[in-house]
Amino acid sequence: MLRSVHTQKSCSGKSAEQTCLEKSITDAGNRNILVRASSSSTTITKQTHSDDTSVAILEKHDAHVDPLSSSEPRPAATLHFHEKITADNSRHGGIHPITSLDSHQENLARLINKALHDLPDVLHDATPSPPTITVTLPSGRTATKRKPDFISVTRGPGMRSSLSTGLDTAKGLATAWQIPFLGINHMQAHALTPRLVSALNSPSTHPSPAFPFLSLLVSGGHTLLLHSTSSTQHSSLAATTDIALGDCIDKIARAILPPSPLPTGPLLETFAFPSHPPCYAYTAPPSRALELARLPTPYAWTLSPPLAETRGGRKSRSMEYSFSGLDSACRRIATGIPAADEPQRRHLAREAMRVAFEHLASRVVMALSTLENEARDRVPRSDGPELPLAGRDSDSRLDTLVLSGGVAANGFLRAVYVAPSPSLPCRALL
After folding, report:
1. Distance in angstroms (rounded) separating the CA atoms of residues 373 and 52
2. Are the C-beta atoms of residues 264 and 250 closer than 8 Å to each other?
3. Strands (DSSP E) along 299-426, which ranges?
4. ∠ at Cα 330 (271, 6), nearest 5°?
């Protein structure tokens, strides 16, 4: 059974590239590409897959004892620098490739230069002596810093023009410093976000959540359910066949809300639940039949759950997501609602999010059921040899769901996943 939900919110200040740092260092260690042996490894990493230009420096410690104090434990990793600049796409109503590219080209070099000031200092008694670089500080003085062990950068998925800016810059630095270059899939990075946060806050050598776990990656460009069994092993269980959830929410918000230069997705939640704190009052459907049913509303319209009314109901249990039909239905309904009828527009906003988020949860429930059945089939029988059973003991039991990506910041989405349900019992770790 699923026992905990980890949510990673985009408003936490963590960019997608920052989330890939744990995977960067893990991959580098697995492939033996670090250029020196030491008690720690450091990477400078860049993210330019969309409209955020982000640079970070992370150090992973092998020995979890502060070198200045033999008794004081330190976190398993240290984030020395992290800063991002987001392109101003407000006049486009969405992310514009050229505007984003111009922002990357304008800001990436400046952020890298700023990050170099925060590279770890060289310890005079370090053995062996690490490779160093000389950095010019804002005061004009120079300082000797530890050279990064490798460069990591987002290689995709994302907009090609934006990705190329970060990739070309990273390759140039790797060549100039003669250190390894590592490209990172930023969807894998999202899945590993909670383990990075754990490493930054705990001296444990075993970050949480432990493998295996499920990850639901929901953003403006992606909707993906993953099964993660290690830092480098992730299998896709379900993905959208048309538009992403975040794109769907943005389009519905633009149809329901007055025009705004601000991102419309977060505004839809605020509009739908205006109280402070918001009162979601959500109850999970007690049965599969009710989950697939059109719920009555006080108005002349209802919303059909995605894939629920396909021919013969075959799609209702398929491991896929679809949001284009919900988007079209909501926009069609919104055009018939007078602008002054705020209660009806608010009800439509709530229903649209409820239907979309329950559609997400339904595939998580189905995935859990399938994985549990597969594990049960591998239970050793008395008349045959013992077969391996991943998840048979407490150390490998699948009991965690990670919610990651921009839409994970939606409070109503988190309310749906922590609501008491016979199919998805869990407690939230927010």
Report:
1. 41
2. yes
3. 400-404
4. 60
Residues 329 and 334: their CA atoms lie apart, in Å, by: 9
Cβ contacts of 144 within 8 Å, gap of 6 or more: 121, 122, 132, 133, 134, 135
Tokens 């960019």 — which residue?
15
Compute, in degrees rounded to 10, the torsion defined by CA atoms 140, 142, 147, 151: 10
358 with 291: CB under 8 angstroms? yes
> Is 139 exposed, middle or buried (CB count within 10 Å of its CB: 0-12, 13-18, 19+)?
exposed
What Cα–Cα distance (Å) separates residue 203 from each residue in 63, 72, 74, 308?
9, 10, 5, 47
Token pair recorded at residue 81: 């620098």
Alpha helices in 306-341 (DSSP H): 324-335
Quick one: average pLDDT of 336-343?
95
Q: The pTM is what?
A: 0.81
Phi-psi region at 251: left, alpha or beta (left = phi > 0; alpha = psi -120 to 50): alpha
Residue 348 token pair = 């439509």
Cis peptide before 212 (omega within 30 of 0): yes
Structure tokens at 346: 């608010």
Confidence of residue 348 (pLDDT cuts 50, 70, 90): very high
Contact 404, 217 (CB under 8 A): yes
Cα atoms in the Cβ-side hemisphere of radius 13 Å centred on 416: 24
Q: Are 186 and 17 in contact (CB under 8 A)?
A: yes
Nearest to 152 by CA among 264, 28, 265: 28
Mean pLDDT of 370-381: 76
Mean pLDDT for the chain?
83
Cα–Cα dist 95/99, whole Å: 8
Query: What is the residue whose two structure tokens read 């239905």?
Result: 329
